[in-house]
Automatic annotation (TrEMBL):
Keywords: ATP-binding, Isoprene biosynthesis, Kinase, Nucleotide-binding, Transferase. This is 4-diphosphocytidyl-2-C-methyl-D-erythritol kinase. It catalyses: 4-CDP-2-C-methyl-D-erythritol + ATP = 4-CDP-2-C-methyl-D-erythritol 2-phosphate + ADP + H(+). It comes from Bacteroides ovatus. Its EC number is 2.7.1.148. The gene is ispE. The active site is at K8, D136. Pathway: Isoprenoid biosynthesis; isopentenyl diphosphate biosynthesis via DXP pathway; isopentenyl diphosphate from 1-deoxy-D-xylulose 5-phosphate: step 3/6. It is an enzyme of class 2 (transferase). InterPro entries: GHMP_kinase_C_dom, GHMP_kinase_C_sf, GHMP_kinase_N_dom, IspE, Ribosomal_Su5_D2-typ_SF, Ribsml_uS5_D2-typ_fold_subgr.
Protein backbone atom coordinates (compact mmCIF):
# COMPACT_ATOMS: atom_id res chain seq x y z
CA UNK A 1 0.00 0.00 0.00
CA UNK A 2 1.41 3.38 -0.99
CA UNK A 3 0.83 7.01 -0.05
CA UNK A 4 2.33 10.34 -1.06
CA UNK A 5 3.13 12.57 1.94
CA UNK A 6 3.04 16.24 1.00
CA UNK A 7 4.50 19.40 2.50
CA UNK A 8 3.06 22.46 4.21
CA UNK A 9 4.07 26.08 3.97
CA UNK A 10 3.66 28.67 6.72
CA UNK A 11 1.57 31.69 5.81
CA UNK A 12 2.73 34.17 8.42
CA UNK A 13 4.50 33.10 11.60
CA UNK A 14 4.38 35.28 14.70
CA UNK A 15 6.22 34.36 17.88
CA UNK A 16 3.88 35.84 20.47
CA UNK A 17 5.37 34.91 23.86
CA UNK A 18 7.86 32.73 25.70
CA UNK A 19 6.28 30.07 27.88
CA UNK A 20 7.32 29.05 31.42
CA UNK A 21 8.45 25.67 30.02
CA UNK A 22 10.97 27.38 27.72
CA UNK A 23 8.98 26.88 24.52
CA UNK A 24 7.38 29.71 22.57
CA UNK A 25 3.76 30.32 21.67
CA UNK A 26 3.16 31.22 18.06
CA UNK A 27 0.45 31.78 15.50
CA UNK A 28 0.59 30.72 11.86
CA UNK A 29 -1.44 29.20 9.06
CA UNK A 30 -0.38 25.81 7.71
CA UNK A 31 -1.22 25.34 4.04
CA UNK A 32 -0.74 22.03 2.17
CA UNK A 33 1.26 21.90 -1.06
CA UNK A 34 1.67 18.94 -3.42
CA UNK A 35 5.43 18.53 -3.19
CA UNK A 36 5.51 14.87 -2.20
CA UNK A 37 7.53 11.93 -0.91
CA UNK A 38 6.43 8.35 -1.63
CA UNK A 39 5.81 5.92 1.24
CA UNK A 40 5.02 2.23 0.78
CA UNK A 41 4.45 -0.51 3.35
CA UNK A 42 4.28 -4.28 2.91
CA UNK A 43 3.63 -6.98 5.46
CA UNK A 44 6.82 -9.01 5.97
CA UNK A 45 5.54 -12.07 7.90
CA UNK A 46 8.72 -14.16 8.15
CA UNK A 47 11.04 -11.33 9.07
CA UNK A 48 13.41 -11.71 12.00
CA UNK A 49 12.81 -8.11 13.08
CA UNK A 50 9.80 -5.84 13.40
CA UNK A 51 10.64 -3.52 10.50
CA UNK A 52 12.99 -3.00 7.59
CA UNK A 53 13.40 0.53 6.24
CA UNK A 54 14.60 1.11 2.68
CA UNK A 55 15.45 4.75 1.96
CA UNK A 56 15.65 6.16 -1.57
CA UNK A 57 16.03 9.57 -3.16
CA UNK A 58 17.49 12.32 -1.02
CA UNK A 59 19.80 11.06 1.71
CA UNK A 60 18.43 11.07 5.25
CA UNK A 61 20.91 11.41 8.09
CA UNK A 62 20.63 9.31 11.25
CA UNK A 63 19.75 5.76 12.21
CA UNK A 64 16.60 4.08 10.83
CA UNK A 65 15.23 3.80 14.40
CA UNK A 66 15.19 7.59 14.60
CA UNK A 67 13.20 8.07 11.40
CA UNK A 68 9.71 9.39 12.11
CA UNK A 69 8.05 6.77 9.89
CA UNK A 70 9.61 4.07 12.06
CA UNK A 71 8.57 5.87 15.23
CA UNK A 72 5.01 6.06 13.86
CA UNK A 73 5.01 2.33 13.14
CA UNK A 74 6.39 1.46 16.59
CA UNK A 75 3.78 3.70 18.21
CA UNK A 76 0.95 1.89 16.44
CA UNK A 77 2.57 -1.51 16.99
CA UNK A 78 2.58 -0.85 20.74
CA UNK A 79 -1.16 -0.23 20.60
CA UNK A 80 -2.24 -2.83 18.01
CA UNK A 81 0.52 -5.52 17.89
CA UNK A 82 1.09 -5.16 14.15
CA UNK A 83 2.93 -7.72 12.02
CA UNK A 84 6.49 -7.05 10.85
CA UNK A 85 6.62 -4.72 7.86
CA UNK A 86 8.90 -3.60 5.07
CA UNK A 87 8.96 0.18 4.55
CA UNK A 88 10.06 1.96 1.38
CA UNK A 89 10.51 5.72 1.73
CA UNK A 90 11.42 7.77 -1.31
CA UNK A 91 12.49 11.26 -0.24
CA UNK A 92 11.84 14.11 -2.63
CA UNK A 93 11.06 16.69 0.07
CA UNK A 94 14.28 18.32 1.30
CA UNK A 95 14.94 18.11 5.02
CA UNK A 96 15.78 21.10 7.19
CA UNK A 97 13.61 23.25 4.95
CA UNK A 98 10.72 24.32 7.20
CA UNK A 99 8.32 22.31 5.02
CA UNK A 100 7.36 19.58 7.51
CA UNK A 101 8.54 16.69 5.34
CA UNK A 102 9.42 14.36 8.23
CA UNK A 103 6.22 15.21 10.08
CA UNK A 104 4.19 14.50 6.95
CA UNK A 105 5.89 11.14 6.47
CA UNK A 106 5.01 10.19 10.05
CA UNK A 107 1.37 11.26 9.76
CA UNK A 108 0.91 9.43 6.46
CA UNK A 109 2.46 6.32 8.01
CA UNK A 110 -0.19 6.43 10.74
CA UNK A 111 -2.92 6.74 8.11
CA UNK A 112 -1.41 3.98 5.97
CA UNK A 113 -1.26 1.56 8.90
CA UNK A 114 -4.79 2.43 9.92
CA UNK A 115 -6.12 1.77 6.41
CA UNK A 116 -3.97 -1.24 5.52
CA UNK A 117 -4.67 -3.15 8.73
CA UNK A 118 -8.24 -1.83 9.13
CA UNK A 119 -7.58 -0.63 12.66
CA UNK A 120 -10.66 1.59 12.77
CA UNK A 121 -8.87 4.53 14.40
CA UNK A 122 -10.76 7.82 14.01
CA UNK A 123 -9.18 10.93 12.51
CA UNK A 124 -9.35 12.58 15.92
CA UNK A 125 -7.41 9.73 17.57
CA UNK A 126 -4.89 9.68 14.73
CA UNK A 127 -4.28 13.36 15.46
CA UNK A 128 -3.63 12.47 19.11
CA UNK A 129 -1.08 9.84 18.07
CA UNK A 130 0.50 12.22 15.55
CA UNK A 131 0.89 14.99 18.13
CA UNK A 132 3.15 12.72 20.21
CA UNK A 133 5.56 12.52 17.26
CA UNK A 134 5.87 16.27 16.62
CA UNK A 135 3.99 19.53 17.05
CA UNK A 136 2.98 19.85 13.38
CA UNK A 137 2.48 16.12 12.64
CA UNK A 138 -1.23 16.27 13.47
CA UNK A 139 -1.82 18.85 10.74
CA UNK A 140 -1.13 16.24 8.07
CA UNK A 141 -3.89 13.92 9.29
CA UNK A 142 -6.71 16.12 7.93
CA UNK A 143 -4.25 17.90 5.61
CA UNK A 144 -6.23 21.06 4.94
CA UNK A 145 -5.52 24.74 5.71
CA UNK A 146 -5.65 25.50 9.43
CA UNK A 147 -4.78 28.23 11.89
CA UNK A 148 -2.22 26.95 14.42
CA UNK A 149 -1.32 28.41 17.78
CA UNK A 150 0.24 27.25 21.05
CA UNK A 151 3.55 25.64 20.05
CA UNK A 152 1.99 24.92 16.67
CA UNK A 153 -0.20 22.14 18.01
CA UNK A 154 -3.57 23.84 18.66
CA UNK A 155 -5.62 23.94 15.49
CA UNK A 156 -8.76 25.74 14.41
CA UNK A 157 -10.41 25.99 10.97
CA UNK A 158 -9.58 28.82 8.59
CA UNK A 159 -11.46 29.74 5.44
CA UNK A 160 -8.78 30.03 2.80
CA UNK A 161 -8.32 28.79 -0.75
CA UNK A 162 -5.37 29.51 -3.01
CA UNK A 163 -6.60 27.09 -5.66
CA UNK A 164 -5.00 27.91 -9.00
CA UNK A 165 -2.17 30.08 -7.67
CA UNK A 166 1.30 29.18 -8.88
CA UNK A 167 4.03 28.45 -6.35
CA UNK A 168 7.80 28.28 -6.52
CA UNK A 169 9.80 26.90 -3.58
CA UNK A 170 13.54 27.42 -3.35
CA UNK A 171 15.83 25.82 -0.77
CA UNK A 172 19.50 26.80 -0.82
CA UNK A 173 22.19 24.48 0.49
CA UNK A 174 21.94 26.09 3.92
CA UNK A 175 21.02 24.57 7.26
CA UNK A 176 19.30 26.75 9.86
CA UNK A 177 19.35 25.32 13.37
CA UNK A 178 16.48 25.93 15.75
CA UNK A 179 18.88 27.75 18.07
CA UNK A 180 19.94 30.08 15.25
CA UNK A 181 16.35 30.80 14.29
CA UNK A 182 15.38 31.75 17.84
CA UNK A 183 18.62 33.61 18.65
CA UNK A 184 17.28 37.09 17.88
CA UNK A 185 13.57 36.49 18.34
CA UNK A 186 11.71 38.98 20.51
CA UNK A 187 8.20 37.68 21.23
CA UNK A 188 5.49 40.25 20.58
CA UNK A 189 1.92 40.66 19.46
CA UNK A 190 2.01 41.53 15.75
CA UNK A 191 0.46 44.68 14.33
CA UNK A 192 -1.57 42.45 12.01
CA UNK A 193 -2.50 39.16 13.72
CA UNK A 194 -2.12 36.20 11.35
CA UNK A 195 -5.80 35.26 11.59
CA UNK A 196 -6.72 38.81 10.48
CA UNK A 197 -3.99 39.24 7.86
CA UNK A 198 -4.82 35.96 6.11
CA UNK A 199 -8.31 37.24 5.32
CA UNK A 200 -6.95 40.18 3.32
CA UNK A 201 -6.36 39.91 -0.45
CA UNK A 202 -3.14 38.04 -1.28
CA UNK A 203 -1.81 41.23 -2.88
CA UNK A 204 -1.75 42.84 0.59
CA UNK A 205 0.08 40.00 2.34
CA UNK A 206 3.53 41.40 1.53
CA UNK A 207 3.14 44.10 4.18
CA UNK A 208 0.83 42.35 6.64
CA UNK A 209 1.68 38.62 6.75
CA UNK A 210 5.13 38.37 8.31
CA UNK A 211 7.38 35.45 9.31
CA UNK A 212 9.17 36.63 12.46
CA UNK A 213 12.05 34.20 11.90
CA UNK A 214 13.19 36.15 8.84
CA UNK A 215 14.52 38.98 11.04
CA UNK A 216 16.71 36.46 12.84
CA UNK A 217 17.71 34.19 9.95
CA UNK A 218 18.36 36.60 7.07
CA UNK A 219 21.31 38.43 8.73
CA UNK A 220 22.96 35.08 9.48
CA UNK A 221 22.25 33.59 6.04
CA UNK A 222 21.89 36.47 3.54
CA UNK A 223 21.34 34.10 0.61
CA UNK A 224 17.90 33.21 2.01
CA UNK A 225 16.84 36.85 2.04
CA UNK A 226 18.28 37.30 -1.45
CA UNK A 227 16.11 34.45 -2.74
CA UNK A 228 13.02 36.13 -1.30
CA UNK A 229 13.90 39.40 -3.03
CA UNK A 230 14.54 37.59 -6.32
CA UNK A 231 11.12 35.92 -6.17
CA UNK A 232 9.52 39.36 -5.84
CA UNK A 233 11.70 40.58 -8.70
CA UNK A 234 10.41 37.70 -10.84
CA UNK A 235 6.78 38.63 -10.24
CA UNK A 236 5.69 36.94 -7.01
CA UNK A 237 2.79 38.70 -5.31
CA UNK A 238 3.82 37.22 -1.96
CA UNK A 239 7.07 35.60 -0.84
CA UNK A 240 8.15 34.31 2.55
CA UNK A 241 10.45 31.93 4.32
CA UNK A 242 8.57 28.82 5.47
CA UNK A 243 8.87 27.93 9.15
CA UNK A 244 12.36 28.60 10.44
CA UNK A 245 13.86 28.02 6.99
CA UNK A 246 15.80 27.53 4.97
CA UNK A 247 13.25 27.27 2.14
CA UNK A 248 11.53 30.32 0.65
CA UNK A 249 8.36 30.23 -1.42
CA UNK A 250 6.78 32.67 -3.81
CA UNK A 251 3.10 32.84 -4.77
CA UNK A 252 2.22 33.93 -8.30
CA UNK A 253 -1.18 34.76 -9.76
CA UNK A 254 -3.19 31.99 -11.48
CA UNK A 255 -2.01 31.50 -15.05
CA UNK A 256 1.34 33.21 -14.41
CA UNK A 257 4.16 31.54 -16.34
CA UNK A 258 6.75 30.72 -13.70
CA UNK A 259 10.21 32.03 -14.56
CA UNK A 260 13.14 29.87 -15.58
CA UNK A 261 15.96 30.76 -13.20
CA UNK A 262 19.33 29.06 -12.84
CA UNK A 263 19.56 28.84 -9.06
CA UNK A 264 22.67 26.63 -9.19
CA UNK A 265 23.22 22.90 -8.90
CA UNK A 266 23.13 22.81 -5.09
CA UNK A 267 19.77 24.61 -4.81
CA UNK A 268 16.46 22.72 -4.65
CA UNK A 269 13.66 24.19 -6.77
CA UNK A 270 10.01 23.16 -6.99
CA UNK A 271 7.30 24.65 -9.21
CA UNK A 272 3.63 23.77 -9.05
CA UNK A 273 0.01 24.83 -8.94
CA UNK A 274 -1.92 24.94 -5.66
CA UNK A 275 -5.04 22.79 -5.66
CA UNK A 276 -6.58 23.38 -2.22
Amino acid sequence: MIAFPNIKINLGLSITEKRPDGYHNLETVFYPVALEDALEIRTFPNADRKFTLHQHGMEIAGNPEDNLVVKAYLLMDKEFHLPPIEIHLYKHIPSGAGLGGGSSDAAFMLKLLNDHYQLGVSEEQLEVYAATLGADCAFFIKNRPIFAEGIGNIFSPVELSLNGYQIMIIKPNVFVSTREAFSNIHPHRPKYPVREAIQRPVQEWKDTLINDFEASVFPQHPVIGEIKEELYHQGAIYASMSGSGSSVFGLFTPGFVLPEIDWGTDVFCFKGTLNK
